[in-house]
Specification:
- The chain is mainly β and about 850 residues long.
- It is about 0% helix and about 45% strand.
- Strands 1, 25, 27, 28, 30, 31 and 33 form a seven-stranded antiparallel sheet that branches.
- A hairpin with a 2-residue loop joins strand 35 and strand 36 (about 540-545).
- The two termini are about 45 Å apart.
- About 50% of the residues are buried.
Amino acid sequence: MATVCALSAAPLVPQAVAADTSPYSETYRPQFHFTPAKNWMNDPNGLVYYKGEYHLFYQYNPNGNSWGDMSWGHAVSTDLVHWKELPLALSHDDQEMVFSGSAVVDRNNTTGFGTKENPPMVAIYTSHAKGTGIQAQSLAYSTDRGRTWTKYQGNPVIDIGSREFRDPKVQWYEPTQSWLMTVSLSTEHKVRFYSSKNLKDWNLLSEFGPAGATGGVWECPDLIPLAVDGDKNNIKWVLVVNINPGGIAGGSAAQYFIGDFDGKKFTAEDKGTYTPPTGTVLQDFENTDFGTWTTTGTAFGAGPAAGAVAGQGAVSGFDGKGLANSFHGGDATTGILTSPEFTVDSRYLNFKVGGGRHPHEPGTLLEQADPPAGTVLADFEGGSYGDWTATGDAFGSAPANGTLPNQQEVSGFRGSGLVNSYLNGDSTTGTLTSPEFTIDKAYVNFLVGGGNHPVGSDNPTAVELLVDGQVVRSTTGKDGEALNWASWDVKALAGKKAQIRIVDDNTGGWGHINVDHIMLSDIKAQPVSQETSVNLVVDGQVVRSATGSNSETLDWASFDLRPYAGKKARIQIVDMNTAGWGHILADRFTAADAPAKSVVQRADWADYGKDYYAAVSWENAPGGKRYMIGWMNNWDYSGAIPTSPWRGAQSIPREMALRTIDGRIRLTSKPVNSVASLRQDPVSATGVTVNSTTKPLIGPAAQGKALDIEATFSLKDAERFGLKVRTGAGGEETVIGYDTTTQELYVDRTRSGAVDFNSTFPGVQTAPLKATNGKVKLRILVDWSSVEVFGGNGEAVITDQIFPDPAGQGVEVFAENGSVKLDQAVVWHLDSAHD
């Protein structure tokens, strides 16, 4: 897992909301995106239109704001923007959790659950059996417009004995007068199609896959017929397959295929075989040794591997007969393979990479250094907790001496003792609290590992700093047994009396915490790298980095070398990880004039942002429209986002279309028209030339927390240009830009506000977008904790959560390294969709 622990400073992360906050006005509460009043929500389910209402069901935990007790929550809307939350629709019970699925109106009463005059609404969902983990497809029905539900006595209706068979999307298929189910075989990267006359008896028609991106499980499929360029005589079928992890921006995302469906089988359009750009091969690992490249450690062996090494699964995707493979001795070994220095004289460095997904993180060290000088509060040596106070049964009566029975190997602690709450497994709970001490240095440094359950989640595993009995700083683990340095900046608390409390309140998976060597220091401790990565090093700094995707299949990656032309550089292949997938594979380093594209980059994506997953569409919407919605979150960090008492939001619903763009049919999306009903107080700017600067757009009248922006730019010579939203104190900003050198739309949320709750959250997301007649058109929706950016005709969409300071409401226009002309920008303030 990533190396930097999830640190949170109390002022940035409101974990509790004052009792007098009026509903839907809490910090970060979306104003025009659906959220439940309280508790956890993920996938949208059961999207159907009936008697003037759009139904939105959703994966919901009725008992808390972390994932669990999965049930179907329920909301309805007449316009897809103003939502009314209804009582729980389908509840988990002793036998099952109610996983994702769909809903239909059974107009012909094929099920017999209703009558022709009052046709039933039927939900088709995945029953997740609590005892066995088996996933099967089941029914429930309603005869009162979805207000109350009855589970079918004959459930399940399809059971193939699989634990990875889920998310049925059912529609009426007119040509055969039958129901069509699209459902996922998640770990096989396949979608199955079934047919039924009555929703109860199903026949397997065909399978599709694996295809496209397969770096994670396939979930929440949808099969949608759409007219190409509005031509009703040219219908193509779109198969949406959501994938996690392995998405275009990392983690979860919505992939799609365009093709044909003949009533039985989906056939994707053939995109042909991929040929990477030609170039000069710098290292192809075809010799018996590494040549002029040097190694440290033992992970890479004495020379290139001929594929898999002892104990490793099959390795594929490398070129020729050799590659660099750091699995020598298994995942527990570490090492670095370094190229000789070279002068950068090409535009791109293309190479193949595979193995573990453990990105390089800035500020980490390649080897463990001694802790900085300071005062040790506790090192847990000497066989006792001393004057610390323990409660419960998780911590025992004395420190652990390393790994406990049935625990994966614990590493990274100092000396022989540490705090390890895995005593008798994850099921034990308790606290361990220090005596009081005075904060007289700038930092509290400590080693931490174990479960990722932050303070503010229902059952934390965390290290807390208490001042006056209140939690003012906290850190959790990363779902890994390796301990690593974490630090709290406590300069603002100088002179205060404080205590450290170690909490294990979790009895589920990774329900424990490991802690060691707690100290006060004026120097921040630097964490040790746990990366498996390929790095470009210039002037001693890592300036470009790539990692694997937890797969033994290598794929193309590319570094943009243009900013480093003429500089001296080295390539480093780094394996500093000793846990699962703690190895890296690399091959065929090639200097080229154009970037190579990975399978993931060559796949098609409904959204290129970090926060659009489980995207599915409404059945039988009026006017033949096809609206789609996704969960505006990412499984990489979904449980750690700093919202309370709810966690999880849905995207704005999008009207979908197929358009021919640049000679290729693409799935496009635009916000549902009814967003315009919330618009107020428009302000505009026209004909503004911006030259290598950033300046306010319009002024105070354009500022806000909830905005709808339409902007058109004419390209001049600027390399990058665009808008910054939610700008505020301390350089806080969310950058929405266009890069003319790469022809990409991008969103940079590195400085967007609270970003430190998970190492994969900050960063830049990009989407390919060609200018049209020298112009770039943007539509931007800004809410209290999100941005959704629609570029061009909706072929490039980026959806990202942000957690800015509520006071940061500025809107700015910028250009870098040249000028751009802003032809027109209109900014509307958006009213709340809540009553």
